[in-house]
Write a structure and sequence with these properties.
By secondary structure, the chain is an alpha+beta fold. Helices cover 22% and strands 37% of the residues. It is built from 3 helices and 6 strands; from the N terminus they run βααβββββα. Strands 1, 2, 3, 4, 5 and 6 form a 6-stranded antiparallel β-sheet that branches. The two termini are 29 Å apart.
């Protein structure tokens, strides 16, 4: 079972479009904040990545919008690592209004682990994988589709 993390956000007026809905960039910002907070919660904060000489880079993001989020909505973003590969990690997200079970948006981000300085992909250490996914990864060793 993957390690899960939940972060709450309140939709602010400046994050909304002319219709009062959370702008697409707001979803991305919430995802990034939740991902970095989840990483820190697992023991991998920005200082640790800097000391390791690595950073994460977004390769691809997909979002499925099921119901709009509006000004002053309290939203909870649940996130977890869905998969690890040699140099990549797939992180999943679910957005829910606070106190409700209905998923209002789903998303996935494919992250690449990169070596600072060379900016080349780097192998993700086994101890890092264990911190985010303490049990065996589902589908470990199965090929993932190549990014176009």
């Amino acid at each position: 079972m993957p390690r899960t993390y939940v972060r709450s956000f309140q939709v602010r007026h400046y994050e909304c479009d002319a219709y009062g809905h959370l702008n697409h960039a707001g979803y991305l910002r919430y995802m990034q904040e939740a991902a970095f907070d989840a990483s820190a919660d697992a023991g991998y904060d920005m200082a640790r990545y800097h000391a390791m000489g690595n950073y994460w880079l977004v390769r691809d993001t997909e979002i499925e919008y099921r119901h709009p989020l509006c000004y002053q909505d309290e939203v909870q973003v649940k996130t977890w690592v869905a998969d690890f590969r040699r140099v990549r990690s797939l992180r999943a997200y679910e957005f829910r209004l606070a106190g409700q079970d209905e998923v209002v948006a789903r998303a996935e981000t494919d992250w690449a682990f990169v070596e600072r300085g060379s900016d080349r992909p780097a192998a993700i250490p086994a101890e890092m994988k264990a911190a985010f996914f303490p049990e065996e990864l589902p589908g470990a060793g199965l090929p993932r589709p190549r990014f176009p």
